[in-house]
Design goal:
Elements: E1 13-22, E2 25-35, E3 40-42, H1 51-58, E4 66-71, E5 84-87, H2 99-109, H3 115-124, H4 136-145, E6 153-157, E7 160-164
Helix pairs in contact: 2-3
Length: 167
């Protein structure tokens, strides 16, 4: 007899039959997966295998050709975009801005306007919100760690990552 699924077993992200085509080229071909909370998932593949396309689709930045994505119980990714952080390959941090200024700027893109939340995220990854300038090493740490920390699910590939966090 199988017990009912617990919150720990329930998928935070479900992907079913995901296809993404660019003209005649299929970047994703029928991808299906489930990601449960409390685990680290690594997406590996050769260049051009579709890793970035998959993460962009999960972040709502690329519309799949076919298939469904369910995040936190909804297929309308716009309703959960405030709970998703996505960092693409290149750094998007501004050298002339402090860690707090960078965090504040990117948080507002997700309609998060609370400085206390920004400071808490920066502190959680071991950085000081009061630092004025980002050194090369600090900027690298921000590139790798200053995304909204995932407490339920983290998907990472090199510098390409996605995190979900509770509000």
């Amino acid at each position: 007899m199988k017990s009912s699924p617990t919150a720990q077993d329930s998928a935070v992200i479900s992907i079913n039959g995901l296809v993404k085509q660019f003209g005649r080229f299929a970047a994703l071909r029928g991808v299906s997966a489930e990601f449960t909370p409390g685990r680290l998932y690594v997406i590996l593949g050769d260049n051009g295998a579709g890793k970035t396309t998959l993460l962009r689709s999960l972040a709502g930045l690329a519309q799949p050709t076919r298939g469904t994505i369910t995040i936190l119980g909804t297929t309308d990714l716009r309703t959960v975009c405030g709970q998703i952080g996505y960092m693409a390959h290149p750094s998007l941090l501004y050298d002339e801005m402090s860690a707090m200024e960078n965090m504040r700027y990117f948080a507002r893109l997700y309609e998060i306007c609370d400085d206390a939340t920004c400071a808490r995220v920066i502190t959680a990854v071991g950085l000081d919100p009061a630092w004025r300038a980002l050194s090369r090493n600090t900027r690298k740490a921000c590139d790798n760690d200053c995304r909204w920390p995932g407490q339920s699910c983290t998907i990472r590939k090199s510098c390409c990552s996605m995190s979900l966090f509770p509000m």
